[in-house]
Write a structure and sequence with these properties.
Layout (H helix, E strand, L loop, with lengths): L1 H18 L8 H22 L3 H23 L14
Helix pairs in contact: 1-2, 1-3, 2-3
Length: 89
């Protein structure tokens, strides 16, 4: 069961990263964890709506893409701006 969750999380996380443009500075482990969370939350949303497996996959990828986007933004310091030290040599 845990191995299956890791595989599904890797696939969902990979699909989520493909949806987002540019480089994503988060690592593979964090991507898998976000994919697992996306699969769980997407499955719960799908079950609450009484939808099928395809809708659950779509929700899982969208939730994971949102998670990857949030983590990427947080890693970059918010907003994607790079911080630099000015006036130092």
């Amino acid at each position: 069961m845990i191995l299956w969750l890791i595989v599904v999380g890797a696939v969902i996380g990979g699909l989520a990263r493909l949806l987002l443009p540019g480089r994503n500075p988060i690592g593979v482990v964090l991507t898998v964890l976000v994919g697992i969370a996306g699969a769980l939350v997407g499955g719960m949303i799908s079950n609450a709506l009484g939808a099928g497996d395809l809708v659950a996959l779509v929700f899982a990828v969208l939730v994971a893409a949102g998670g990857v986007a949030l983590l990427t933004s947080a890693h970059r310091g918010g907003g994607g701006w790079r911080r630099t030290r000015r006036g130092t040599f």
